[in-house]
Design goal:
alpha/beta, Arc Repressor Mutant, subunit A, five-stranded mixed β-sheet, homodimer, globular, about 375 residues, DNA-binding
DNA sequence: ACAACTTTGTTTATCCAATAGACAAACAAA
DNA sequence: TTTGTTTGTCTATTGGATAAACAAAGTTGT
């Protein structure tokens, strides 16, 4: 491992990144304003901006209003300098978007999946992505990358180590896609990309430290700490769904006992419902709740309470600014919210003191695709910085 | 907040830090070797080393062995260029060390504490620190700082927000000490400094991601992620002792239910012992265990199992390279170890796969003081980098 | 309408850290 | 001795950032 030493090229890359960042955050912006914001000299800014313009990342969009002197030339980021593909692989569906570099959706596609067999999925996935890519207009950078979210454990190399609900084991997804398309591919866990999606384009915009709780069949979590996705020491973390909340509770297929997801997931609800003679179907249960079925409401409150138990633990551990509940169960918000909030308020240490916000996903079933696209976009910017 | 822009001074600071780091990690080292290791040009290294020598941080210690050419001039870090004070404030004791910049103990002091009243402690603390400081030989940088570990919640400003066992609330410890001594003061939680201590000087040397579990009256935790102490979003984290492991367990004074520390701390053991007619004293219980008292051994196994439950949760969340069990209960290692290991192996997801190590503190009751000193030393190096 | 002041963005000369390459000193081995 | 190697310094060059001067393009007060 070579230590990154400092030289002048590094300075230039750093400062270019700073300038670009400034424009992204508050466009349109003049050179003078950038100089003021960043503390860089006017001449430096001029020079760096020129480079950005030469690289087709920024353009002048005419003059702005003067405040008693020469009118400023306003600059903006060229969001259409390139495009990104985001894909959300579900157990029984495939969802994809083509976005520009600012995350605006250019094209969208959805497909039901039959057998989630790895080979089969790949055969469907390839033309699926291809079609999206073809929707992209001509642009300087073209398709900058493909981001993929998968409901399973993903390692640093982008291989799906284990996806129980898909029946996958050791599927080198990233490698396969890279080879097929010849452009950068990022693969990550569904909860992680969901977190990214809500953080960049949803309810979590601008929040520095956020925990995304993906409540579906199981419970997955995506941690955003200091504005970046946090991965554990060995790359795959976020297994908060398997935090034990009942030390001597039911055994879980993970080997542990009393895992949180056994008590607070969609599956937990469906099992309870079935035992009580209800259909094993979330939609029908939510309809019953809507109609005021007291038994269903009680079940939902129970789920909400257990959700709160786990969220309290998360709050105590990570001290996030916000917790976002997403994925399928977020649709039950009206009937969960009270129980969740109450439980967390009771249990989380100094909850009010910290000002943690309990939020619900804003992008609905698009959290993950959008996050997947963001994965590709972020990687593109990262490459810009280091070259 | 001003963005740190890049200029030549920044480069120089970065590269100087790289050179110093290289020397610290593998002294003694020649200029040529440093150039080779860091990738910096020989001339650059020469110049930077000269600066370090001028600043009394590095010195030449004669020539080394040649491998067929001019003999290299070996360089070493001047550990005695300054000294640091570390203090561990306990409920009924005060412990302090004076170390050089490499953490070698120059002087040590211990004092029993009567009433842990904040004012009183401060009155004892002042001369206590003063005495340690006077033991320091003359040096270019003098006493570079004072690090303090406290059994309580500490905010970013170094105020002790809440220390239940001391009966403290909102004690601006850092400010008070800063004013008294006029040198940099760092205050942090006991578990955090303990983690630092073991990481730098104990069993955790060189480990990048480590969780230190301080098992005393309560349970505190210090997280070291990516080689640095991790603090939650709002500065104080590490409340893993209050992770709920029994969702409907006993209410805890923190407001939550079934907190881990209710089942796995020294206090938990003492309560069980008392109920069974044993003396409420750890030493006597350990003696009984030593003598093979089956009832005591069973209690210790129970504690060990619960320790394992919590540690499994930690492993699942943070994926650390190692978990270190420290503080008073680490003395019970022989009777805890089996139960802990077994439980974690059963419960932590893919425990073996990850290669997590279960370790026990090496510095004994010195983990915290040494970490406190390290806090001051690290801050000194940090200041060097940014000025 | 005009002078005076402002703001914007470029140009110029200067500074400074890193670097390659030349070089001298110091040494081992043949 | 001779030859080749290693170490560390010296010199000229490169390339970014910067301050200061400046031109261009405004606004405002009288």
């Amino acid at each position: 491992m070579k230590t990154t030493t400092g030289d002048q090229a590094l300075i230039k890359r750093m400062n270019t990144a700073i300038v670009l960042e400034a424009i992204l955050q508050a466009e349109p912006l003049s050179r003078a304003k950038i100089s003021e914001i960043t503390g860089l000299n006017k001449a430096t800014v001029s020079s760096l901006v020129q480079d950005l313009i030469d690289n087709q990342l920024v353009r002048e969009i005419g003059t702005g209003v003067s405040s008693g002197g020469r009118k400023p030339v306003m600059l903006e980021f060229i969001a259409t300098a390139g495009y990104a593909v985001g894909v959300d692989i579900g157990v029984n569906y495939l969802r994809g978007v083509l976005t520009d570099l600012r995350g605006a959706i250019i094209a969208e596609k959805k497909l039901p999946l039959q057998a989630p067999d790895a080979d089969e999925v790949f055969n469907v996935l390839r033309p699926f992505i291809q079609t999206l890519m073809e929707k992209a207009p001509q642009s300087p950078f073209g398709i900058v990358g493909i981001g993929v979210g998968v409901p399973g454990l993903v390692d640093r190399a982008g291989s799906v180590l284990f996806a129980p609900n898909m029946g996958w084991r050791d599927v080198p997804l990233k490698e396969a896609l890279s080879r097929t398309f010849g452009i950068p591919v990022m693969v990550d866990n569904e909860a992680n990309v969901g977190a990214l999606g809500e953080r960049m384009f949803g309810i979590g915009r601008g929040i520095s430290n956020m925990v995304y709780v993906s409540v579906g069949i199981g419970i997955g979590t995506g941690l955003i700490l200091h504005r970046t996705l946090y991965k554990g020491a060995s790359g795959f973390s976020g297994e908060l769904g398997h935090l034990s909340v009942e030390a001597h509770g039911r055994p879980c297929r993970c080997g542990n006992r009393g895992c949180w997801e056994l008590y607070a997931s969609e599956q937990a609800l469906l099992e309870q419902a079935e035992a009580a003679g209800y259909p094993r179907d979330l939609d029908e249960l939510l309809e019953a709740a809507e109609a005021g079925d007291e038994q269903v409401l009680a079940m939902l409150r129970g789920i909400g309470e257990y959700l709160g138990v786990g969220i309290s633990n998360i709050v105590n551990v990570f001290n996030p600014d916000a917790v976002v509940i997403g994925n399928r169960m977020s649709r039950a918000q009206p009937w969960l919210e009270e129980a969740v909030t109450q439980t967390v308020e009771q249990r989380a240490l100094g909850f009010h003191l910290r000002g943690v916000h309990l939020l619900y996903a804003e992008l609905g079933d698009r959290s993950a695709v959008m996050g997947a696209a963001e994965l590709a976009i972020a990687a593109f910017f990262e490459r810009l910085k280091s070259a």
